[in-house]
Amino acid sequence: MSITEEGSPQRSSMLFKEDEAVLCFHGPLLYEAKVLKAELWTEQSSEELGPHYYIHYKGWKNKWDEWVPEERVLKINEENLKRQADLKSNVEGKKGGPKVGPGAGVTPRSVEERAASKRKKEDQAAKEEEFIKRPEIKIPIPDALKVQLVDDWENITKNGKLVPLPRSPTIAQLLDLYRESIKSKKTVARDSRADDIVAEITEGLKQYFNRALGNVLLYRQERTQYQEQLRKLQQVHDGTAHSTGNSRNDIAGKTMADIYGAEHLLRLFVQMPNLIAHTNMDQDATEILKDHFVNILNFMARNMKELFLDYAALNNPSSQPVSNSSTASASPANVPPAGTVAAGEDVDMKDTATGPPA
Questions:
Q1: At 320, phi and psi to the nearest 5?
Q2: pTM, full prediction
Q3: Gap between the Cα atoms of 328 and 221, Å rounded
């Protein structure tokens, strides 16, 4: 007999041998079984020490085979057979007692729950592995637009200057201008399919923006302004907007892409790597998107004076209320404080973005 580090005795011999017929506890009952394997578990091999036996229960399917500690195994003799019969009699005599047979002491629900939990963990692990293996996309942001991002952050969060809404041009108008600029470039390679792809991508950008805006694109100070625009759109949708004037007609059928402008579209491009990472796009589709995004960003950089707000023209902080509620959305991770976006550095939001919109 040897002594473990904890000071408890550990026997080096085994009471039962392989292929021996035995009785084994499963739940509250004893069942006839057979020892398939016998091993002495040590600290190096398992957290559970001592003799262990791999048991097959007689008449049960192999899926119930299991490793059990020695205290669950008994020799087949008259005394233990009587004990087996007494236990069975006691259980059967109790109304609503556990079932006798495979899985006794383990309810179907608990088995199903454990199986479901295991499948869920395996599925989650597979999804995480698949996500890690997905191609990483980096969208290079022109240096002038990086400066614009910092300027945007500083004026809104430090100076209280919100972007006046609706913008002119809006995101929808900006993307239309981009499409027209593409069409005006007559080349031999251009065809109707190329125009269709540009149309699909610009339309998809508007849809992405409408979904992402309230989730990941706003600063805390912009929440009240956003809620006001949302309320106006909802009133038109519900038919409760005031009928006087042209206010209802001005926003009828519109989305947030028809209200916000280049400042907020630029934030979407910085978040886009993370949004794309949560899709099932293959490498080829991702590269096509990236090429078009780069073209749109270059178009925005070439036309900054026409597309972006001149904050210097806003002499006074916005009269719109600025929310300081602790429950408001945090500043978007894509636009860091001044000085943290270096010129010439590609923006990659894989590690910092908050995730795709719901």
A1: -70, 140
A2: 0.53
A3: 8
Per-residue pLDDT reduced to its tens digit, 234-280: 877 666 555 444 444 445 578 999 999 999 999 999 998 888 877 77
29: helix, strand or coil: strand
Residue ranges and CATH numbers for the domains of the chain are 2-103 (2.30.30.140), 132-313 (1.10.274.30)
Separation CA 356–CA 215 (nearest Å): 8
Residues in the chain, total: 358
pLDDT value, residue 7: 42
CA nearest neighbour of 183 among 168, 194, 171:
194
CA neighbor of 182 nearest in space, from 265, 290, 302, 299: 299
